[in-house]
Amino acid sequence: MKNSIKLILGLFLLSSIQLFGQDKGKKDNSKWDVSNPPGDWNWKEVNFTTDEGTWMNLDVSPDGKSIVFDMLGDIYILPIAGGEAKAIRTGLPWECQPRFSPDGKRILFTSDAGGGDNIWVMNSDGEEAKQLTKEDFRLLSNPYWTPDGNYFVARKHFTSSRSLGAGEMWLYHITGGAGIQLTERKNDQQDVNEPCVSPDGKYVYFSEDMYPGGNFQYNKDPNNQIYVVKRYDREKGKVENVVTGPGGACRPQVSNNGKHLAYVRRVRTKSALFVQDLETGIERMLTNNLSKDQQEAWAIFGVYTGFDWSPDDKEIIIWANGKINKVNVEDGSMKTIPFTADVKQKVAETIRFKNNAFEENVDVKVLRNLQTGPDNKTLVFNAVGHLWKATLPDTKASRITKDSNLEFEPAFSKDGKKLVYVTWEDEKMGQVVVLDLATGNKSNITSEKGIYRNPSFSPDGKMVVFEKDGGNNHQGYIYCKEPGLYLSNVSNPQPKRILEHGEFPVFSEDGKRIYFQTGGFIFGSITKSYGSIKTDGTDEQKHFEGKYAQKFSVSPDNNWVAWSELYKVYIAPFPKTGKTFGLDHNTKAVPVAQVAKDAGINLHWSADSKRLHWTLGNEYFTDDLTERFLFLDGARDSVPPMDSTGIRIQVDLKADKPEGQIAFTNARIITMEGDQVLENATLLVEGNTIKALGSDVKY
Q1: Cα–Cα distance measured from residue 605 to residue 571, given in angstroms and rounded to the nearest whole number
Q2: How confident is the model over 469-482, as pLDDT tens digits?
């Protein structure tokens, strides 16, 4: 078991990595080979013999002679009486959830060998493996045959604004294809999983998270009801509940005669195996000696491992507590089916970096809210809570103010002489501040407490537009009434709300309209929208929307738009049509070009709208429009490669170090000297260094 735990994480990570490369401005369509990943890996082979395994899915052959199961991403076959398990599918790809075909000649399984989780099929001896489904985004798992062997049902994975998502039941022909949707997810956060087809082919049983609230939640109560077992009627196209109630129900498995349903339920602190008579509804517990199910978790591969009935329906074969077990359906007695497996795994040595416990100087790794001045050489940004300035080609930055409150989100006036930014202090809360860069004089645009964001000057520098936040869990909700976009005169500040929603507001070129984004930034809606409104708060329009976009940035001349989409950066012309159009990296209505090879944030334009700037970490990048669009005057003859290295901006800080001494007394100290442990000892720290430890330390 220990070996299983050590290997499982490393193999999962290794087999799941995907690299995205770019060459000469075009996408590299070569696929990552999970079986033979490129790179300078220090490989070694790990061999061991085990008689137990972690989280093993299994299935019984139709003739009752064999068990097929997964372990550590490989697939094994074992005589039903136990003994030596034979590996029939091995290698770096992660492969699991095997299921025998009705005639026992083939096995369906889930594999990422093709570059993502899809359904594969192979002969029962492991030969002639073939990928059936070709999903590259909505990945698949938990395949289950229909009785005729011509189709299978699998769980298709869907994600939204949260990383793990939910599922649906889909039907596929054994030759593959796009599949046919059977069930519809009720949202993108509560899972649907673990399909099982009845012996007559009429029903597809499955489990679904039905916990109240409409979204995934942590700390759910498993003794209330999380998952329930449902079934889809393939004749009527309807879904009905089969098993509900306290403790929930998951991993349904119909008996071979179709009369009984086995499933897993939580009883107090234990996961138990139950059987329901499908005619009468009578339920009884067979055993509560299972491993813990994952009802509280986000179990996208199943709430419990796959199991099966013996052909005569007298026993249930199921994994629990590291072992393969057979449970007597009559009396619930549980016996182990012993096995041994010779495991051979190819693993890569962990990449390790030396990290010093303390450095005298702090190397700031991330620049936030960076903006480039109209002179194309002055950079302002936030780092470690304050505003900094660097003047290229000098890359060393210095503080702009000496204020102690936090400073964020600066923006230049068109002439480059002033900055507007927001501040935060826990008691005084936030303000919008205008700073004269020559004199250092500051004035507030706002006078009331609040949470203010993303201010921006009008082209003539006389007005400022900014957001007022409606509150959040970090900064609170007081003084956050009437959120939205506000407009104020700089010389005579009197903020006036012009719109009840909107983010990242900027003025149009002529100063008559305000452009803004809706839908959030990293979080929020999957589809973000970009619109505008007149400065008097009328004539709201939506210009475009982008799925998976994070941030839009319109050029000062309003002829171009840049955006980040799944962290990649793109640019395109900004057509004005009076209608909303979709904008993403696949848009064909206008030319689209990728500019950041890896990723980018802090997207913003030069004052003349001819180049885009962005940052990644502490590096600063610039790309001219003429480098990406060959139809422009002055463009190159060909599109050059995208930059992978930018200009590194330096922020030099001394690391904080405490002063004086502190003694931790009456402590149990684990010394890291073999097995040495000191009881009732003292640990003496001076500054940030351990000076002494032991039972007789003087201080």
Answers
A1: 11
A2: 999 999 999 999 99
